[in-house]
Amino acid sequence: MGRLSSISSFRRYPPLQAIGWFILFVLILEIACRACLPESGMEVEFHEISKRAETAPTPTVEIVGDSVAAGGILTTLLSKDSTNIVNYAVTGSGPAFTYLLLKRELAAGHAPAYVLIAHSPHTFSGVRFPVLVGSFAQWSELPELFWNSDDGSAFLYGLLARLSYILTYRDQFKLLLTQGNYQFFIDRPVPRAPETQRLAEYRALEKTNAFKANPLPDEIWDIYKEPFHVSRLNDRLFRKMLKLAKANGIKVFWVSLPVTKRVFDYREQVGYRGDLFRYLDQFSSAGELKFLQRDILVYEDDLFDDFSHLNMRGAIRFSSYLSGTLPAMLAH
Amino acid sequence: MLFNSLQFLVFFVVVYALYLNMAHRAQNWLLLTASYVFYGAWDYRFLLLLLLSTSVDYLVGLGLGSSREPSVRKRLILCSISFQLGILGFFKYWNFFADSLIQLLASLGLSVTHSTLGIALPIGISFYTFQSMSYTIDVYRERMAPCRRFFDFALFVAFFPQLVAGPIERGRQLIPQIVKSRVVTPRKISDGVSLIAWGLFKKVVIADNLGITVDQIFAKTDDFTNGEAIVGILFFAFQIYTDFSGYTDIARGVSKLMGFELVQNFNLPYFARNPSDFWRRWHISLSSWLRDYLYVSMGGNRSGELKTYRNLLLTMVLGGLWHGAAWNFVCWGTYHGLLLAVHRFFQQSGMLSAGQHSQGWKERAVNVASMSLMFLFTLYGWLLFRANSLEQIVNMTLALPHFASSAFLLRSLLKLAFYAWPLFLMELWQYYSADLRIAMHSPAPVQAIGYTVLFFLFLTLGDFNGASFIYFQF
Question: What's the ipTM?
Answer without folding.
Answer: 0.76
